[in-house]
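Record type: monomer structure entry
Structure origin: computed from sequence
Chain ID: A
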Amino acid sequence: MGTILMIIMGGLIGWVAGMIMGTDIPGGKLGNIIAGLLGAWLGSLLLGNWGPEIWNVHILPALVGTILLIALTSIILNMMKKKNRRV
């Protein structure tokens, strides 16, 4: 049951981070889940485990990590689009 709750939390964090960034995460709901889980992992590596915790996910580091992940993904996708236009 813990894995299912963590997946739900990853989706919620991905959705909130997308709302904060004002951009859609590629992949829809599955993209939100993946971005939230990877962002939580990245945030815990960069910031540690602190702040409120729900379903084994520390909210603040997860949110910061997901926002960084979305920003990095957006930059890479924009660079790829510009490169394809030149060809």
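Annotation 1: The chain has a mean pLDDT of 81.
Annotation 2: The helical segments are 2-21, 28-47, 59-86.
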